[in-house]
Specification:
Blueprint (H helix, E strand, L loop, with lengths): L4 H7 L4 E2 L5 H6 L13 H4 L1 H14 L3 E3 L7 H6 L6 H17 L7 E6 L14 H18 L3 E7 L2 H12 L4 E6 L13 H9 L5 E5 L6 H11 L4 E5 L18 H13 L4 E4 L5 H13 L4
Parallel strand pairs: 1-8, 2-3, 3-4, 4-5, 5-6, 6-7, 7-8
Length: 300
């Protein structure tokens, strides 16, 4: 395990608060977030809005903000007809997060460099071959590390094979790594593997923490229990707020309102989860209510 700023933060008592969604928040504010670029298009069309959203999450109480680099990979940019923009967009995503952090001087803020599956998160059959996984994840991880993120966040990983390749690439930069899985309601990765199997495979690569994301809070309990049983490492959770079981189709349903989400977050905190934030559909209000709840209960 690489010891760095995230490890140091986790040595302190309390729960670190991760920010909320970027892509669905851009969409909620009227921007085009169509595939294959998703939220990355805003780095060209509305970078000041990306910066504003980062600032709003910090004002709401986030301790960690995530770069808008979920779809700035060379593959996504090539599919969008922007084959030469990947490096510049990745750098811009980090720069905007750094600018937001510079305005927040009252507490220590960490920047997580977002790394997503190279293709559709929900389509394990589209995961590229091993050579492509190695080369493309290594390139993206290195660009994020060189641009100055504090640690690398592997998000929405639905197969052990890609999670392992991405973790190996990320660890090769010397940065701390958090590996976050996407699971079904039954607690299996979308590739069909168990969480325990995935953890056994990836733990030897030395991640700082494991995580679950983009799962409804109503479906989180079995997967979280399995993850807790599988590893002694610190855990993170950031759920989506659509209807349980319809994560891909209905990110804007807001089936779980901010107050109820804070209830779930409080449960996760009591279960020992050390980093809690929000995924698709969450807004700065979700983070603000979590912060208020944690401060009221003396969790920070």
């Amino acid at each position: 395990m690489t010891a760095g700023p995230l490890y140091t933060a986790l040595q302190r008592s309390g729960t670190r608060i991760l920010d909320g969604a970027m892509g669905t928040e851009l969409q909620r504010r009227g921007l085009d977030v169509s595939q294959p670029l998703w939220s990355a298009r805003a780095l060209v069309t509305a970078p000041q809005l990306v910066l504003q959203i980062h600032r709003e999450y910090l004002a709401a109480g986030a301790d960690i903000i995530t770069t808008n680099s979920f779809r700035t990979t060379a593959r996504a940019c090539a599919h969008a007809g922007w084959p030469d923009r990947s490096e510049a967009l990745t750098r811009e995503a980090v720069t905007l997060a750094q600018q937001a952090r510079a305005d927040c001087t009252e507490r220590t803020i960490l920047i997580a460099g977002s790394i997503a599956p190279l293709d559709d998160c929900y389509r394990p059959d589209l995961v590229p071959g091993d050579d492509a996984l190695h080369s493309e994840h290594s390139l993206h991880a290195r660009r994020l590390a060189d641009a100055g993120v504090d640690f690398l966040l592997l998000e929405t990983m639905g197969t052990t094979r890609e999670a392992e390749a991405a973790c190996r690439a990320a660890a090769g930069t010397g940065k701390e790594v958090v590996v976050s899985f996407l699971c079904t309601a039954e607690g299996l990765l979308y590739g069909g593997e168990s969480i325990a199997e995935a953890v056994r495979t990836i733990a030897r690569l030395g991640p700082t923490a494991f995580s679950l994301n983009c799962i409804s809070p109503r479906h989180m309990a079995p997967a979280l229990l399995t993850l807790q049983t599988a590893t002694p490492l610190p855990l993170a959770v950031y759920a989506n707020v659509g209807r349980a079981g319809e994560e891909r189709a209905e990110t804007f349903v807001h089936d779980v309102p901010p107050g109820e989400y804070a209830d779930f977050a409080e449960q996760w905190r009591h279960q020992g989860v050390r980093i809690i934030g929000g995924c698709c559909g969450t807004t700065p209000e979700y983070i603000a209510q979590m912060r208020e709840r944690f401060e009221y209960s003396g969790a920070r």
